[in-house]
Amino acid sequence: MFGTFDRSKKGVYNWSGTNLLANHNQIMSPRSEEEIIEILKRPNIKIRMIGSGLSYEPLNRVDQQDHVLMTLENYRGFISETEDTVTFRAGTALQEVFGYLIKQNKMLPSSPGVIGIQTLAGAIATGTHGQGMKQATLGDTIEKLKVITAAGEILNLDRRSEHFGAFLMHYGSLGVVVEVTFRTIPMEILACKKITTNFDTLCSVYSQMNEKSDYAKAWWFPESDDVHIWDVNKASEEEQELYQQNNRELTQISQQTDNQLNEAIDQIILKMSYETCDDKFEGRQFETVQRFKSVTNVVGDIYQVFCKGIPVPQINCEIAVPFEQITEVLHALRDWYRKSEHKPHYPFILRCTGASEAYLSGSYNRRVCWVGFLVYLAKDGSFIKGSLEMMKELQIILAKFQGVPHLGKHFIKEIFDFEANLPKWNTFKQLRKQYDPSGKFENEYLKNLFA
């Protein structure tokens, strides 16, 4: 099974099941490097790669009947490890890697994204990241990569390789990543302190909190100006003891419950039920905001704290802006909210990271704050009128702050100046021509994006 997207009688659909990506006869699922090479060497073949099907759908779409969609669903699993590295096949899901590391009492030196069902190849290709100024993207924890080029040649790359940063987020256009070797460190048990506050306090403390904390994440509810912050740091000895006594399950470290957001959440759920045509509250889309009701501080490993999953399809956008401009960005968004007729039904999500080595990451060579916003779909795949206009308005605002979009999520390319804000943009374009001169990994979307 591919992961999450719809695999119907007609073909493979996007995550929400609304748009066809490829017909069944266009799907290829190689089981070995030899099979991958054999496919790549076929004359005049055009290939798009797909992982769990969560990415912005034009990236995975097959344009013509004689083009194919390749999945590594049959090429996954553990390969080897050393004292401070671990190697997996690229079709392996992140949650499988995390589960293996937990058993070894190890972790990757990065905060994970919330979605564990992503494949390694897909998560790396699109620049998956977590939160915390001491780390950047998942790709920045990679020590080695094995890649098969469009010509069927095998590249064994490591941190000494020229342009290694291009492969740390390659957008599926430099070759087929088949093996990934990550750097590992001893597992840390973390205490997540949950703070409810307001917009003004967010503006005054969030930058400093990110500077001093191991990890920090914030949700701003513009309807009420409430803010929910996670301040995450290494757990104390007492907190770790509570965790051990609870069989290493996510554990409450306080008997106090924070109910300050309960009323605001109830209002959001009512609005969401209307906008997703779910007046009986039967859908899983309500789970995400209900997490902010009656919250308590917890202790757990990094994956228990941050990997919460994502229950239903959505149109998701995330823009990286310079870390030093967080306050100005927040005020610009607040001004927009007060004037716009379009209102989001989920809070803005703020995650800050350190500088990345990945050429295509919005955090390349700079510290950033990732600003996320989304629209949930109704059961029939539709969305409330004005949703796309709202997404566009927000992208225009953030682009003015040297914003760069998360390329694995929804974005409007015409809004952003990639050449100005990604110093290695043109270098990456040249590498595409070098490693794929005939455009074997190209579809119309990629062709237009890099034109």
What labels would you give this structure?
451 residues, alpha+beta, 9-stranded antiparallel β-sheet, 5-stranded antiparallel β-sheet, 14 helices, globular
Structural account:
- The protein is α+β, with helices and mostly antiparallel strands and 451 residues long.
- The chain has helices at residues 33-40, 94-103, 120-125, 164-167, 199-212, 237-245, 262-275, 286-290, 302-306, 326-339, 387-399, 418-421, 425-435, 444-449; strands spanning 11-13, 20-23, 27-28, 47-50, 68-71, 78-81, 85-89, 106-107, 142-148, 154-158, 176-183, 185-186, 189-198, 215-221, 226-234, 251-252, 298-301, 314-322, 348-353, 368-376, 404-405.
- The radius of gyration is 22 Å and the shape is globular.
- It starts with 10 loop residues before the first strand and ends with a helix.
- The model has no long low-confidence stretch (mean pLDDT 92).
- Globally, the shape reads globular
The amount of beta strand, in percent, is: 15-25%
- The helix tally amounts to 14
User: How is the largest sheet built, in terms of strand order?
Assistant: 16-17-13-15-14-19-20-18-21
Could you write a compact summary of the structure shown?
This protein has 451 residues and is an alpha+beta fold.
Provide the fold topology:
Layout: E1 11-13, E2 20-23, E3 27-28, H1 33-40, E4 47-50, E5 68-71, E6 78-81, E7 85-89, H2 94-103, E8 106-107, H3 120-125, E9 142-148, E10 154-158, H4 164-167, E11 176-183, E12 185-186, E13 189-198, H5 199-212, E14 215-221, E15 226-234, H6 237-245, E16 251-252, H7 262-275, H8 286-290, E17 298-301, H9 302-306, E18 314-322, H10 326-339, E19 348-353, E20 368-376, H11 387-399, E21 404-405, H12 418-421, H13 425-435, H14 444-449
Parallel strand pairs: 3-5, 4-5
Antiparallel strand pairs: 1-2, 6-7, 7-11, 8-12, 9-10, 9-11, 13-15, 13-17, 14-15, 14-19, 16-17, 18-20, 18-21, 19-20
